[in-house]
Design brief:
Layout lengths: L7 H33 L1 H4 L2 E7 L14 E7 L50 E3 L2 E2 L15 E10 L5 H8 L5 E6 L2 E17 L14 E7 L3
Antiparallel strand pairs: 1-2, 3-8, 4-8, 5-7, 6-7, 7-8
């Protein structure tokens, strides 16, 4: 069987068809690549960021665990620039304040580092002081880490003691009550008010059960 050679016009039509098909395929490939890149980089390309948020309400003096934290993607203009971006950055830290569900976790809300030492719960510029107390003067042993308390001092005075001079030293301008005590007197003075309890015994976290209070460690401003 003999083959009929293509005429010049037919050959040009075939070449034009191949060229158009190649251009169309190239456009389709470019569109697909653009769609894939846009989808994979959408969290950054659309101006959104992922941050660590509280999954539930978290009380102060609580140890953070992964189960109560979540990762949430938010528009960039709603993200606090100091917010943590990974659970691993905050797990095992102690909260210094109550955190509401949905709040972004910030460095100012938690201890500087993860750990179980009292040092991790002391704010910058503060000092912790350990005080031995009896259960009868600590609300029946119900004082818990995170509570705010007043520190009251009771001083035994000789009958001839200068109360005014003593007050000028221990509580200038503070509240004081002098009561008889046999032949002597007792001076009761409010030394500190609204002091934060960091720990009770060896516990840094508020307990769900009753505890016997033996030692509290109130946080006071550092001097010098």
């Amino acid at each position: 069987m003999s083959k009929t050679p293509l005429s010049g016009s037919s050959r040009m039509t075939t070449q034009r068809f191949v060229l158009i098909a190649g251009v169309v395929c190239g456009l389709i490939a470019a569109i697909l690549v653009f769609a894939i890149v846009a989808q994979s980089g959408g969290s950054e390309g659309d101006g959104s960021l992922s941050v660590v948020v509280a999954k539930q309400d978290i009380p102060a003096q609580s140890r953070l665990i992964a189960d109560i934290l979540d990762i949430k993607t938010l528009p960039a203009d709603e993200v606090n620039p100091e917010a943590f971006t990974a659970r691993s950055q905050v797990v095992n830290r102690i909260t210094g304040q109550a955190i509401t569900a949905g709040d972004q976790i910030l460095p100012t809300m938690v201890s500087d580092r993860a750990g179980e030492s009292l040092a991790f719960t002391i704010g910058a510029g503060k000092r912790a002081v350990s005080i031995e107390v009896k259960e009868s003067v600590t609300a029946g042993g119900n004082v818990q880490p995170g509570d705010q308390v007043d520190v009251v001092g009771i001083f035994a005075l000789d009958k001839d003691a200068d109360v005014t001079a003593l007050l000028a030293v221990v509580a200038p301008g503070g509240d004081a009550v002098v009561t008889p005590f046999g032949t002597d007197r007792n001076l009761t003075v409010t030394l500190l008010q609204d002091v934060k309890v960091l720990a009770v015994g060896q516990s840094l976290v508020k307990s769900e059960e009753e505890t016997t209070t033996r030692v509290t460690q109130p946080e006071t401003d550092a001097e010098g």
